[in-house]
Amino acid sequence: MRDSKVIASDLLAWYDRHARDLPWRMPPGGAPADPYRVWLSEVMLQQTTVAAVKAYFLRFTALWPTVQALAAADDATVMAEWAGLGYYARARNLLTCARAVAQRGGFPDTRAGLAALPGIGPYTSAAIAAIAFDRTETVVDGNVERVVSRLFAVETPLPRSKPELVALADTLTPPARPGDFAQAMMDLGATICTPRKPACAICPLMTPCAARQKGIAADLPRKAAKAPKPEREGVVWLARHGDALLLEHRPDKGLLGGTRAFPSARWDGRDLPPPGPADWRPIGQVRHVFTHFTLNLQVMLGNLTGNPLRGELVPLDRIDRNGLPGLMRKVWDMAQAELAA
Fold this sequence. Notes:
The protein has 14 helices and seven strands. It is of the alpha+beta class. It folds into two domains: 4-219, Hypothetical protein, domain 2 (Endonuclease III, domain 1); 231-340, Nucleoside Triphosphate Pyrophosphohydrolase (Alpha-Beta Complex). Strands 1, 2, 3, 4, 5, 6 and 7 form a seven-stranded mixed β-sheet that branches. A hairpin with a 4-residue loop joins strand 5 and strand 6 (294-303).
């Protein structure tokens, strides 16, 4: 294994030439990035791809260019703009954190201070501290785990190897340009040291990579076998009254929390009756995969024959498909033929 200083130097030289152009980044070697933009991007990128996040990030920063502007935003408007990114607790935490930052007058500039903010965990606090404040912090996401596991040929399966991978990554983090180094590691994992078919022949760390030397780079990191996801059943009601459908505001906490959605039950721990008297009939089923389970949702359509028990009737032409969470978009899409009949 070559010296960690040489590895950091080689990787930074590669990053200076090949850094991805991302809307939340500053050019390599330049001034530290805006902590608001770093924080927002990191929250959005949790469990989501860069490609999926770019448009959301640009829209959010156009609507709310500062953390103070986001802190002052209406909750429902922010939730609607978040729709489609999933993991809606992130959006609720985003607002809570923005308001805490605005109240204190800005982001703290240390990892410990950042970690004390609501919704900011060990990874995000390290990323903001390094990238926005040039603190020497070790930033380890999935891409970095992969790079480090191959560089050091760590064969212990994930997630058991996580502490070891963090410790090894820490030995590489340089005191100079730690933010650029963190982003260089991420870029290396995203573009060259990829999960399948890593491009070892053009990797700047090809020579010191222990996994390449052993011929096992493509096999790492090893992962413990996953248990099959449980399945849940539920029902969603499309309650129609003339040219309007019933929408409800879901509880702030829990799955799809804080979003506008068609009334549903049974799959989310809520054993609720239909949202009103109607000639209910099944029109199909949608299947949706969450992080921890797979949902089979029976779709019921009915014309209301009395007052709704909950929710708000919204004209069909005013329902914004893009403002619905992903699960409800599937319901909307599969029901279009029936709604048009």
